[in-house]
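Design review, sub-item: ligand-bound model
Attendees: FS, YL, KQ
YL presented the inputs for the oxa(dethia)-CoA complex:
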Amino acid sequence: MHRGVIIGTGSCLPERVLTNSDLEKMVDTSDEWITTRTGSKQRYIAGKGEETSKIAAQAARRALAMADVSPEEIGLIVVGTISSEMSMPSCACLVQKEIGANNAFAYDLNAACAGFTYCLDLADKYVRSNPELTVLVIGAETLSARTNWKDRNTCVLFGDGAGACVVSADNAGRGLLGSYLRSDGRYWDLLHMDAAPSMNPDINASHSEASFILMNGRDVFKHAVRAMTDAVDNVMTSVGVTSEQIDLVIPHQANIRILNSLIERLNLGREKFYINIENYGNTSAASIPIAIDEANRQGVLKRGDVLLLCTFGAGLAWGAALIKW
Ligand code: UT7
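KQ shared the predicted structure:
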């Protein structure tokens, strides 16, 4: 049986770093509040020339280099994003142009913070039905352009960045073992954004309060912990993997307190959780592929390891996936 296996990873962060002490000068907040409530000490903020498609393309180039795959060999590009610089064409088509993946078809997928895991599930299904296909799976966001920098409730939470994986078919037991994806649109208003993203400064200048990210943090928190715990239980049961067999957990880096609650409930062992929110904030769909790339390049992820992903975001949309690395 063929499965989608990750053969190369890459990531890209914008140049500018925004620290908690920088935020202290912008809104009524403190390093102490941000650190204890979110776990973040700093985040990266995109500037000109670092639009979502540009950082996505750079992450893709790094993943392709690691996989030793040329852009022309890519058959599909799928980008999980809610902050592309244009409403159309898709971010994926802009990435295609940037890297010269001229033999691919390309499109975006909107599952907010859960976007990368949804995209990975999709890539796996494509390569299972067509093992010749090589897929570029990307999570990329520049939520800084969608953030109300006067709202201390949200502006301390998010960061920009991109991560990419090259996925191809493997029939020797490695790859995506299974996934469990869910959404519940009844709770759409807990976390939403009305604005159409744009790289046009005139359009961005017309931002009204309603066009930024709006969130009911407390309710999102409760749903996130419950939903991710349930998704992990489901995927472990359906694949038939026990707690002891899981080597590494890469959760969506939403918030340290959400992660701490998840760690407690899942009982898989704190040491198995890969957490890097301190450096990046919540980068939405980019958080998992950035962490995968980091863990991969640091040698934390080793061939044959069983990797668990779990994610949660606006939609509400959430899920979990198990991968044999
Ligand atoms: O990918 C999923 C994305 N979403 C999330 O990860 C968010 C999930 N939610 C959370 O993690 C938390 O709800 C937050 C971190 C967003 C907020 O933490 P909280 O403990 O739920 O705070 P709160 O909203 O209940 O506010 C508590 C207090 C309030 O002051 P009063 O009313 O008690 O006087 C807020 O005004 O903290 C105040 N506050 C701040 N104080 C300093 C809110 N933001 C800040 C801030 N600095 N940045």
